[in-house]
Design a protein that fits this description.
4-stranded antiparallel β-sheet
């Protein structure tokens, strides 16, 4: 059974930093795209960042570009996905979700339905 367990998050003042982690129990996730999404209250879940499986190329939503950084570490039997969030703003407040694809993706890699496995979500609250 695949597990994706998130940690990190919490409450931070505007301008501060947080790092989210997502430990995935399937080593093969390192071969494919992994991503972060977020969902603010009353809004739809939106793409934040992704890292591809082959060359490790990254892509960011315009709203977080230059402030957030996605990365990934692989170890025996697991992969850990990270999201370093700097210069946080109140509008970054949301529940953040990690996601993993179980196959090569050919689309934008920014859509929820492209991903096969999801973490449980973790709350990030940025106070002004």
């Amino acid at each position: 059974q695949v597990q994706m367990v998130q940690s990190g998050g919490g409450l931070v003042q505007a301008g501060g930093s947080l790092r989210l982690s997502c430990a995935a129990s399937r080593r093969t996730f390192a071969m494919y795209t992994m991503a972060w999404f977020r969902q603010a209250p009353g809004k739809e879940r939106e793409f934040v960042a992704r890292i591809s499986g082959s060359a490790g190329s990254t892509d960011y939503a315009d709203s977080v570009k230059g402030r957030f950084a996605i990365s990934r570490d692989s170890a025996e039997n697991k992969v850990t996905l990270y999201l370093q969030m700097n210069s946080l703003k109140p509008q970054d407040t949301a529940v953040y979700y990690c996601a993993a694809a179980a196959r090569p993706l050919a689309g934008t890699r920014r859509m929820e339905d492209e991903y096969d496995f999801w973490g449980q979500g973790t709350q990030v609250t940025v106070s002004s």
